[in-house]
Amino acid sequence: MPLDILATAVVEGTDKIPFWREIRTLAPYIAGIGAIKFWTRGGLNQWGRKLHGKVYIVTGATTQGMGTAVALEMAEQGAQLIILVRKLDEWATEWVEDLRSKTKNELIYLEQCDLSDLYQVRKFATKWLDNKPARRLDGVVAMAGNLEPVWNGTRKASADGLELQIAVNFAGTFHLLDLLRPAFKAQPPDRDVRIIATTCMLQAIGDVRVEDPLWRDTKYDRPLKYFGSSKLQLGLCMLELQRRMLSSDKKDDGRTGKNVTVTLVQPGIMRSTSLRRLISNGSVLALIFLYSILLYPILWLFTKSGFRGAQSVLYALMTPELEEVNLKDEQVKYVVNTGLGRFSRKEFDDVELQKKLYDTTAEKILELERSMAIKRNVGKKKPAVSDAKK
Hints:
- The protein is α/β, with parallel strands linked by helices.
- The chain is built from twelve helices and eight strands.
- The model has no long low-confidence stretch (mean pLDDT 89).
């Protein structure tokens, strides 16, 4: 068929081609749309890496978007996955069974660990560390995130009383990685260990509260600013985490930590749960009519799918550029669109700021944990007192 059309155009002229005028009119628009979509869809990870025998802790895997695409590829490559979920309910069980069936990989496990609850994070990390010899751990892929409706003035709080976005995106993820530091350093020097944390371009509108990193004493005004700030503060702490992994003392048995790399990944604008919540403001009607019907053609054209967003995370996981033998410096790498990018905020060049933010965050989390532990203990004692009165 295409050859016949081409032959007709050569021998008899383009006017003999059916609907030629319509084709000629629409062709520039179709070509323009195709070019825009080709540019906005994002790149594909070109690196392949077998993950058989490797063990990873993964957060944010049940999103049915980027997180699920990353977990699916890792499982297909043979990795053993410990996936942290907020609830071990029927839906989560069915989801993991489906993942095992699709990938023919039975080494996929769910662990309850709500990142918004610092007590649950500590329980998981303590259980992981309470092993001799140390359990194998080839990395952590931290993709969990929470974005609250932008025009909602109601402050949602975590179990510890923190603003929910700060709790999930920053405090919980920071706490998990900070507690697992001994597990990373305990790995053999020849094991390539990768810590990958996802960030967002909305970090550009974020602020850093060095003295109040958990934002407990800050007036709640703009939810989107809390989201951007949580991502910005996490990124800055990841730079300090890399430096602390490289420091060695007598407890480390001479390990340099150079086999442990920390990478920040900015996957781009995706048609994700966060984008749907941002546009719909948490309204089901707005989600159906505004997002799914009115704006979807535009969003399809200018945003990535979850699968395409996952490619940058997979690149950070699989590229040989991050192996110790290929590292040219000891700085945290910033992955954008399946390639290495540069940080734009000046705070990423301020080493003292990053160190102070890391220390203050760890200190404030410990203080909060202690106060919550006292409350839990008081709550346990109350029933005993009432029974004694009876």
